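Batch job 17 of 40 flagged for manual review because the log was empty.
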Amino acid sequence: MSTVRTSRFVSTLALSVYVATVAVGCADGGDGSGPGSVPRSVRAQDALLQTAQSALVRRCLTDRHIEPSAEPGTADAGQDRGIAQRREFPYGIDDPEWAAEHGFGSGQGSGATTKEAAAAKEADVSPRQQRLVDALFGTGRRELSTRTATGLVVRTNSDGCLAEAQRVLYGDQGRWFRTEVTINNLGAAAHQRVTRDPAYRAVLVRWARCVAPVQKAEDPGELRRVWQRRAAGLDPQRATESERRYAVAEARCVLRTGLADTGARLERRHAAELRTEYADVIAEHRRLREHGLRFAVRQGL
């Protein structure tokens, strides 16, 4: 059994994103709904809920005499510029041209830079930042927990300003937390089921035979791990060259065996099965969202 708890570093990253949202709010959904009415589109509804939650969090922080503004170093607007070309390939890269240009999409040589940056950020947490983290996400024992469809146990506090905002907005923070975490992890659960599906495993065997002349690996994940180990001792240029060579081999074999297409087809089936299995949770989540939307409109949030 795995358990997800929020580390100081993760909390600080979440703080960087959340402070920006709290400080500036969200833009209008722009779906044509009139004032005083619930937006029609899901995108606009999401924007309204985030705006309302941010407003409630700001009120809570103000009541606790905490200023929800980022200090230098809290947020890095340019932190994702190096991965602007990154794409998602859940079942292996299927674009050899992209692989030839971007490799695995790591955006850096051996990967050491990422670890060093993470350590530096964790070490740089200031008392003011930590006070804001604690106020937002709570402290002490995490009172709420739920198990996702993948088997992970996720825990959270019920004493922070985010928890208070969710309690006010949705009427029940515990129910919102459990249904929100469950819904948000159904995609990961579908992916997990695909990787265990005999039909997918059979294609994966063919992919492994195809890529073996370049590097023996049971799946694309192992191919990346092998590259990372070898790249750790190479200079950046040679690390990049080897990354691209491995990535192109992966992509050509994914296309040749149909690995990505098989994965996508099976994922649609498993996702449908999960929606049926978790229909009650999905329905409860929808009711809580509707409660939040009506509350936000009534309160003018």
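Reviewer: the log was empty due to a logging misconfiguration, but the result itself is present. The longest helix spans residues 42-63. Unflagging and moving on to job 18.
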